[in-house]
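re the bet — no i am not wrong, look at it urself. input seq straight from the record:
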Amino acid sequence: MPPSADTSSEVLAGESRRREVPVFTDTHCHCLPGLDDGPQDLAGALVLCRALAHDGITQVVATPHQLGRFDGRCETALVRRTVIELNRVLHEKQIALTILPGADVRLDERIPQLLESDAVLTVADGRRYLLLELPHEVFIDPQVLLERLKEMGITAVITHPERHDFLARNPAYVSRWLEYRPCLQITAASFLGDFGRQSEEAAWAFVGTDLPVVVATDAHDVDSRSPCMTAAYRRLVQRLGPSAARMLCVENPRRLAIGQELLALGEASRKEAE
């Protein structure tokens, strides 16, 4: 029996919505097996990678934790080898996902020296951007490190500031760092309220700053920390429009992964109004 007109319309509408959602680059994801608090084995990593691909993500920067409580565990050579092996298995399993090396690096005064000795990883091994995680327990201003990194030609990407209690309550604080132009990486799930109201409100506040913003999954598994880029993108389209959503979820992540200059939504909005 042929589908009714109503059913056909629903199918076409669904296909149209899917076409409207672009493909994504995820620049913060804990997808490597057995290295940190992400998947504990290859089977778990493949489950997460399938979920990432199903979410419209085609390229992922693997970012196991370095320093902090993982100091000495996720060495750069091990991360690179694990990325190569996971890419081999993904190709074998026909999972349409490419993994790039990187790390979520905990704030540490040794980072400049560790970069010089290849002991911590930059985004996609590009020596242009470094994911920088602030301690959760207390706020430590990273300004001195931001300045030192800038002198080295490296830009910090402050990971999930909306989930840091001090910055979430004081989002305007990041304006103190404008001189060093760090990027703010917002977790996709924060726009959906998954980390509570304070993080959700802070996420929207950070989007309007004069600093570049990139949206990433920070996925660890398919249960409590699953990828949701498509849902976050649609929420951003609803609130900010498709152009802004693409900048935050598509263009800036792509630029971050290949080491290009990032765009700031707040600056772009003002220029359009002038």
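see?? The longest helix spans residues 76-92. told u. also The chain has ten helices and nine strands. so pay up
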